[in-house]
Specification:
With 332 residues, the protein is an all-alpha fold. The chain is 84% helix and 0% strand. It contains 14 helices and no strands. Helix 5 crosses helix 12. The longest helix is centred in the last third of the chain and has 32 residues. It is globular. The protein starts with a helix and ends with a helix.
Length: 332
Amino acid sequence: SAAMTPLGFILSAPLIPMLSRRLGGARLAVLCSVLAATTLAAIAWTADVWAWMPLRFLLGVFANPLSVISETWLVAITPASRRGRIMGLYSSVVSAGFAIGPLSLGMVGTAGWSPFLIGIAAFLACGVILLALVSRLPEMPQHGEATSVAGFFALAPLLLFAVATAAAFEQTLLSLLAVYGAALGSDEARVAPLITCFIAGNASLQVLIGRLSERRGSRRTMLFCVLSSLAGCLLLPWLFDSWLIWPLVFVWGGVTFGIYTLSLIQLGERFNGQALIAGNAAFAFAWGLGGMVGSPATGLAMQVTGHHGLPMSLGLLCAVLAGLLIVKGSRS
C-alpha cells in the first residue's frame, strides 16, 4: 500500500510535460489540487486496504504535477545570482512539509477523519492560493525542442542518479533507522528523536548549502555533500551510542537532502525551455524510483549482512555517486 503513491509519481511523470503544454501550468495545478483532495477524502471514507491501493496510486498521480510545476516555475523565474539561496529555501520548505505531515498525527491521532482533513485542507489551500495568484504566475516554458522524460534521461543521467540517491537516503533512514537502532539496543524513545533531528537538518541547512553553491559552484558543493554523506555512513556505527550522534545526524540530514537541492540548482543552470519541464518531471520519476528501491534494497542488505548493512549500502551508493562526479569533473 505504501508503495502505491511513489508508483503514481513514477508512472505519471512522463505525462506531465504534455499535459502542462495542453492545459497550462496553473490550470493543471489547480485541477490536481482538487483531485488530490477528493482522492484523500475517498481514502478516508473507504476503510478497505485493497481499495486504498488504487486510491493511493491516484494520490501520487495527482500530487506529482504540483511538485513538477512548482519547481519549473521557481527554476524558470529565479535569477542566476540568487538561485542557490532561493532553491535552498524551497528545499527547506519541502523538507518542513515532509516533517509536518507525520508530526500532525501526534496532534490529532490516526483514527477517524481528523488526520485526513489536514491533508484535504492542505490540497484545497494550495488550489485557492494558485487561483488567487494565477494572473501573476508564469506560463510553462514553450520555447526549445519538446523533450520527453525518457529523452531527458539521456541528457542528464548523472543528475537523475543524484536525485535517486537523495530519495533513497531520505526514505531508507526514515523507515529503517529504528530497526538499526533496535539492533544496537536503542529503544524507540531514543531513535524517534534522532529521526526528528535528521529531518531538522534537512530543513535547516538547505539555504546554507545553496549559498555555498553560489560561492563555490554547484558541482563542487554537490561533491562535498556526497562525500559528507559518505563520511556519515562510515561514522554512524562508531558514534551511534555517543552524544556525537546528534550533531552527526543533524548535519547528515542536511547534506543528504542537499544533494537534491544542488540537483535542482544544476537543472536551472544547464537547461531551459521545454527541457526544464521534462527535467523536473524526470526528477519526480527518479525520486519515486529511489524512494521505492532504496528501502527494500537496504532491508535486504541488512538481512544478508546484519544491521550494519544500513550504513554499508548507503555508503556504497554515495561512493558510486562521488566517483561518477569526480570522473565527470575531470573530463569537463
